[in-house]
Amino acid sequence: MNKPLMAKATAVWLVDNTTLSFRQIADFCGMHELEVQGIADGDVAAGVRGFDPIANNQLDPIEIERGQADPAYRLKLKFNAAAVGEEKRRGPRYTPLSKRQDRPAAILWLVKFHPELSDGQIGKLVGTTKPTIQSIRERTHWNIANIQPVDPVALGLCRQSELDAAVQQAVKKRAAEGVVMTDDERRKLVSTEQSLAMSPEPRMPSAIAGLENFTLAPTEEEEKPQADFADADSFFNLPASEDEDDEDDNR
């Protein structure tokens, strides 16, 4: 069900001018019932002027009469050609004020770990502009020294499914261009589920790289042949001690 234009202002008008239940107003305006109750209590939408849905050709008066007579009745929005496509309006992603300061950290993370993403894709994921992305790519941002890369999913700037979709789009674009990717790049360009399902490759730590063919030279003790004690006679045939040699000489 589509929402009316200026849904919160419409809810304010319905609360002030009708006896509809909070649930009916919430269903019609696409809001939560507690939010409508907050409007009635004056805690929400303080200072918002009511928007008359009847005068603006969004609701028939008969609908309000039916809703007031039956609390279970759901109001029906009148068809308005001007509202078609309002939900699918294109534009930059809206980022709350509390999270806008986290966008540089998310951009740096995407630039560092997903360099295959274009500036347009990054802008749609975190809701930023191309000049900002370019300044972080070129490390000319005014606060670049204090920015630490943070996953935008962890910051709540985008969903994991949206990031995976952008990565998959980058995979198709690179495949169409015939770009050969390394194993590390290929692992980054798959979705999270596929990446977790892949078997980890054994890797040599960078600190000891180049020592995989290194072998130690045998010591002198290792070069000496070891005695063979395969049978009992050889085991008990021990060499004579110095005391026994002295006794044989005295005789």
Short description:
Helix content is 46%, strand content 0%.
List keywords for this structure.
251 residues, mainly alpha, 2 domains, 14 helices, 0% strand, elongated, TrcR, DUF1013 domain-containing protein
The overall strand count is: 0
* Largest sheet, strands/sense/barrel: none
Structural class by secondary-structure content = mainly alpha
Tell me the fraction of residues in β-strands, as a range.
under 5%
Overall geometry: elongated
- SSE string: HHHHHHHHHHHHHH
Mean pLDDT: 76
Rg value: 38 Å
Number of domains: 2
Please bin the fraction of helical residues.
40-55%
Ranges with pLDDT <50 over ≥5 residues?
Answer: none
First-last Cα distance: 120 Å
Number of helices: 14
Would you kindly provide a written description of the structure presented here, covering whatever features stand out?
This protein is an all-alpha fold. The model has no long low-confidence stretch (mean pLDDT 76). The protein folds into two domains: 7-83, no CATH class; 93-198, no CATH class. It is built from 14 helices and no strands. It comes from Halodurantibacterium flavum. Residues 191-251 are annotated as: Disordered. InterPro entries: TrcR (IPR010421).
